Amino acid sequence: MKSFFIACLAATSTLAAPLAVPQFGGFPSFGGGFGGGFGGSTKNDVTSGVCKPVTYIFARGTTELGNMGSTVGPALEKALESAFGANNVATQGVTYPADVAGAISGALNPGSAQGARTMASLTQQALSKCPDTKVILAGYSQGAEQVHGALQNLQNGQVAVALTFGDPLQRMPFRNIDFGRTKIYCNLGDGVCAGAFIISAAHLSYATQDATPAAQFAKGVIGNI
């Protein structure tokens, strides 16, 4: 099995697109966005002590640069600022390796994943600094695993909204959050969501197709600020 994963990695290491590796033991496959030469975004409002009515914490896909990546993370940030008002949203990226090895371990045990633990810690930090802030957790591809894991390490009521895109664990129920506060975006034809070793245009289209609907969903749950 180990040699199988090594072979998959070697075969795909030159692709400037997200990587999906077939799962083992019955877990769904995973994928994320390769940097592909595009500069990633970095946002650190929580660690800088910024306090806003809404706190958006995002985990990027595999090998995306910065702590926000360059696709879904920044697109959702812009959409949330449009929905709630730019002055009402604090944005924080999750700093974690976002590598292939982490995606494997994150699929098997999301609650123990490094990014999940960091995301949970950032949530607690935001709530400690700003007790009334509404926390939105979001993640793309491997980053979606971190959302699942972070919620396992938090208490019900700490997170206002959870959003995932191209979610390898889309069949796994979220923990410690009411179902009506969650939304999984898995586009038709996205092999990552279906557990297949396939990266298609469907897996790469969330930033353009789903960021605005996701922000509107969050606005509907949280309400006016």
TrEMBL record:
Disulfide bonds join C51-C130, C186-C193. The keyword Zinc does not apply. Pfam families: Cutinase. It is an enzyme of class 3 (hydrolase). GO terms for cellular component: extracellular region. GO terms for biological process: carbohydrate catabolic process. The active site is at S141 (nucleophile), D190, H203 (proton donor/acceptor). The keyword Thylakoid does not apply. Keywords: Disulfide bond, Hydrolase, Serine esterase, Signal. InterPro entries: AB_hydrolase_fold, Cutinase/axe, Cutinase_monf. GO terms for molecular function: cutinase activity. It catalyses: cutin + H2O = cutin monomers. Its EC number is 3.1.1.74. Residues 1-16 form the signal peptide. Belongs to the cutinase family. This is cutinase. It comes from Aureobasidium pullulans. The lineage of its organism: Eukaryota, Fungi, Dikarya, Ascomycota, Pezizomycotina.
